[in-house]
């Protein structure tokens, strides 16, 4: 992961700068004017995203949608993130992006993005008011769920490992185990 805090003209990056980035397979995100550049995801990462999409989509209510990256969550001119997977309301979508917080943001950890996902992105999703943030560690495999506590801050509500079954209630009911998301990949 590459992090750049200052744009070419010496000021913070904006979404206009993102629109000029090359279509080179990298993921370009913007957190408070800081540009984050992630390498293209590896097959293991993509398998988890695909399997989770297949688990969530059939249970998704008609007024909600499940999307894999890249779908921009752009609430301001200096903030654009692309969760690995998200759930949002149909009424919140525009033709190009999601200008408000999704109901669920999911990030799959990788060696190049783990610190960003566990810290910067978690803080951004909390600040935006994303009700549920899931982090999946493919190496264990583990699902960690963060939701808002009584103090209005994220708290870790559950950790599910390997073949243990996770029963989500938000944003809608669904059941799966972290191990299922790897399929035949080990």
TrEMBL record:
<dbReference type="InterPro" id="IPR011335">
    <property type="entry name" value="Restrct_endonuc-II-like"/>
</dbReference>
<dbReference type="InterPro" id="IPR008538">
    <property type="entry name" value="Uma2"/>
</dbReference>
<protein>
    <recommendedName>
        <fullName>Putative restriction endonuclease domain-containing protein</fullName>
    </recommendedName>
</protein>
<dbReference type="Pfam" id="PF05685">
    <property type="entry name" value="Uma2"/>
</dbReference>
<feature type="domain" description="Putative restriction endonuclease">
    <location>
        <begin position="16"/>
        <end position="177"/>
    </location>
</feature>
<dbReference type="InterPro" id="IPR012296">
    <property type="entry name" value="Nuclease_put_TT1808"/>
</dbReference>
């Amino acid at each position: 992961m590459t992090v750049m805090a200052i744009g070419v003209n010496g000021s913070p990056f904006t979404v206009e700068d993102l629109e000029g980035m090359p279509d080179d397979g990298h993921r370009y995100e913007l957190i408070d004017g800081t540009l984050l550049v992630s390498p293209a995801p590896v097959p293991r990462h993509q398998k988890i995203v695909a399997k989770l999409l297949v688990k969530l989509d059939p249970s998704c209510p008609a007024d909600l949608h499940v999307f894999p990256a890249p779908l921009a969550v752009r609430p301001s001119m200096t903030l654009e993130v692309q969760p690995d997977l998200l759930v949002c309301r149909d009424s919140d979508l525009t033709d190009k992006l999601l200008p408000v917080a999704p109901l669920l943001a999911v990030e799959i950890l990788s060696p190049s993005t783990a610190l960003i996902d566990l810290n910067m992105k978690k803080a951004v999703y909390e600040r935006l008011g994303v009700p549920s943030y899931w982090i999946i560690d493919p190496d264990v495999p583990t699902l960690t769920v963060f939701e808002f506590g009584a103090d209005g801050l994220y708290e870790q509500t559950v950790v599910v490992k390997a073949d243990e079954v996770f029963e989500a209630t938000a944003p809608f009911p669904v059941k799966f185990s972290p191990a299922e998301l790897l399929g035949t990949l080990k």
